[in-house]
Amino acid sequence: MGWIIRIMISALAIFITSRILTGVRVDNFITALVVAIVLGVINTFIKPLILLLTLPLNIISLGLLTFIINGLLILLTASFVKGFSVDNIWWAILFSLVVSVVSSVLHGLTK
Asked: How many domains does the chain have?
């Protein structure tokens, strides 16, 4: 039951963030829910592998490469989910940062 609440909070954070940022569009809350699920699957299975493969570059860049990887994974999600679009990598990076902040605030309110 806890994972359902986490997905709903993530979907709400995605929906709220899409209303804040002009370079990101989410059609409706159902689309945000699908984005939360797809992004969760991508972050669970693909992101650790990419981070492992890029570890030397990530160490050299002092972790800044992780922001670019997050942006690319959001663009990958946008290519899979109809009704979710991101204009470019910079909007995707900003989207990942704002979603993290909004999600943290929402998670804090539920405790």
From this structure: 1
